[in-house]
């Protein structure tokens, strides 16, 4: 068992193109966001394991000796596997989460306990740990916050239990794990995602583990080899939406108007492929005309998504406001509210970007200027984290 403090971070994601079409077998492109979740793990010897999630107001601890005595044989499945509904019931008993706790909070605690017990129980004694997780990502906005949480937990627990090595070598500020270790982190994180989401596609944990950009089609995930540096505005309209209801709405429209809707999905597929091709070209030799192509693809896809019935007045407003500043936007994720992305061309004046951000916040939206395609799960030295992150994690 490692005795040092571990500082881990993992990114959220956006879907560039292919949302909804991916449900019908088409290609989707997912890209890591430069908004991250940070975790601090501190081993100690007070006989407790504690979890502190300041974003959602969770602060809970468990007696390690009590957890040790519990019959956790239900976790004994040989291979890495998600808990069955019966096993989830047992985890709930172990968790002792107050009855009045909201669903998100409850699931975050269950995912933690599952990963802690399943990963650490291979050691003779369960370790005494303090864990704090803090995120720059809003929860429930389709930005992969739960996957970033599961990825951080898996990476930190596997490292603390010496299942994988701490990649941070003397003097390094940030380091990443080798490929085999990332594969193990991703597998465990997928199980954590299953505790939270039931039956996730695995894209969110994959992009949070590997970073960069991924192409996703019919369960097959592959990394894009080359990605240019892209800046975006990410806007959260804060309009709540149900991914499940929106996905069902598209399916109904496809059944009702197959001749109209199937070509839309085929066209979205072609947009994703053209975007992938363009990104590869831009990474080799960037030129302003390529940004114009990306903007056209964004506009066409946004219209298609509207035609699929997953738009919203708030998203229309977002597109109009940014267009008034000469910028192109589309919804990202499930739509029906939620988030949108706006491409920032490299020739833009910062003043124009600021004016756009101000106009968007003026509509009551949250808005971040951020980059796409950042690194996946990483181990940090304390010095590599900025002041606000250190403060949020209690690093002093
Ligand atoms: O809500 P998000 O960002 O996880 O996006 C959902 C994407 C959909 O294509 C609408 C659904 C799916 O399962 O792929």
Features:
single chain; 396 residues; alpha+beta; Ribosomal Protein S5, domain 2; Alpha-Beta Plaits; 2 domains; nine-stranded mixed sheet; four-stranded antiparallel sheet; globular; binds (3R)-3-hydroxy-3-methyl-5-(phosphonooxy)pentanoic acid
Query: Which stretches are low in confidence, meaning pLDDT under 50 for 5 or more residues running?
Result: none
The percent range for helix content is: 40-55%
> What is the β-strand count?
13
Strand content: 15-25%
CATH topology of the largest domain, what is it called? Ribosomal Protein S5, domain 2
The CATH class of the largest domain turns out to be Alpha Beta
Major sheet size, sense and barrel closure:
9 strands, mixed
Please tell me the CATH architecture of the largest domain by its name: 2-Layer Sandwich
Mean of pLDDT: 93
The count of helical stretches stands at: 12
Q: What does this entry look like structurally?
A:
This protein is of the alpha+beta class and 396 residues long. The chain folds into 2 domains: 6-224 and 374-393, 2-Layer Sandwich (Ribosomal Protein S5, domain 2), CATH 3.30.230; 230-372, 2-Layer Sandwich (Alpha-Beta Plaits), CATH 3.30.70.890. The protein is 43% helix and 21% strand. The protein has 12 helices and 13 strands. Strands 1, 2, 3, 4, 5, 6, 7, 8 and 13 form a 9-stranded mixed beta sheet that branches. The chain has a 4-stranded antiparallel beta sheet with strand order 10-11-9-12, sandwiched between helices. Helix 4 (145-160) packs across helix 5 (179-197). The longest helix is centred in the C-terminal third of the chain and has 27 residues, at 258-284. The protein starts with 5 loop residues before the first strand and ends with a helix. The mean pLDDT is 93. The structure holds (3R)-3-hydroxy-3-methyl-5-(phosphonooxy)pentanoic acid. (3R)-3-hydroxy-3-methyl-5-(phosphonooxy)pentanoic acid binds at residues 15, 19-20, 22-23, 142, 201, 243, 247, 333-334. The site of (3R)-3-hydroxy-3-methyl-5-(phosphonooxy)pentanoic acid has 11 residues, from helix 7.
């Amino acid at each position: 068992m490692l005795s040092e403090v571990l500082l881990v971070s993992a990114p959220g994601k956006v879907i560039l193109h292919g949302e909804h079409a991916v449900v019908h077998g088409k290609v989707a492109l997912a890209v890591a966001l430069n908004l991250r979740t940070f975790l601090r793990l501190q081993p100690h010897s007070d006989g407790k394991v504690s979890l502190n999630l300041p974003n959602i107001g969770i602060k809970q601890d468990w007696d390690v000796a009590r957890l040790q005595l519990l019959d956790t044989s239900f976790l004994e499945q040989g291979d890495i596997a998600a808990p069955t509904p019966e096993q989830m019931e047992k985890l709930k008993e172990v968790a002792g989460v107050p009855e009045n706790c909201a669903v998100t909070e409850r699931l975050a605690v269950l995912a933690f306990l599952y990963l802690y017990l399943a990963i650490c129980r291979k050691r003779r004694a369960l370790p005494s740990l303090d864990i704090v997780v803090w995120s720059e990502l809003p929860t429930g906005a389709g930005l992969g916050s739960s996957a970033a949480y599961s990825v951080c937990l898996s990476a930190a627990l596997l490292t603390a239990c010496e299942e994988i090595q701490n990649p941070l070598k003397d003097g390094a500020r940030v380091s990443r794990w080798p490929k085999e270790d990332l594969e193990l982190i991703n597998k465990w994180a997928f199980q954590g995602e299953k505790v939270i989401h039931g039956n996730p596609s695995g894209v969110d944990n994959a992009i949070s583990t590997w970073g960069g950009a991924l192409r996703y089609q019919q369960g097959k995930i592959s990394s894009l080899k080359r990605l240019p540096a892209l800046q975006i505005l990410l806007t959260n309209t804060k309009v709540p939406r149900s991914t499940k209801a929106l996905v069902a709405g598209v399916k109904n429209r496809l059944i009702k108007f197959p001749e109209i809707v199937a070509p839309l999905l085929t066209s979205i597929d072609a947009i994703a492929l053209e975007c992938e091709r363009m990104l590869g070209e831009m990474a080799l030799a960037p030129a302003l005309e390529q940004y114009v192509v990306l903007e056209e693809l964004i506009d066409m896809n946004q219209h298609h998504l509207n035609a699929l019935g997953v738009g919203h007045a708030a998203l229309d407003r977002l597109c109009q406001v940014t267009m008034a500043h000469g910028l192109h936007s589309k919804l990202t994720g499930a739509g029906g509210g939620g988030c949108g992305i706006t491409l920032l061309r490299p020739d833009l004046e910062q003043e124009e970007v600021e004016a756009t951000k101000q106009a968007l916040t003026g509509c009551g939206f949250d808005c971040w200027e951020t980059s796409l395609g950042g690194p996946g799960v990483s181990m940090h030295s304390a010095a590599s984290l900025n002041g606000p992150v250190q403060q949020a994690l209690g690093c002093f």
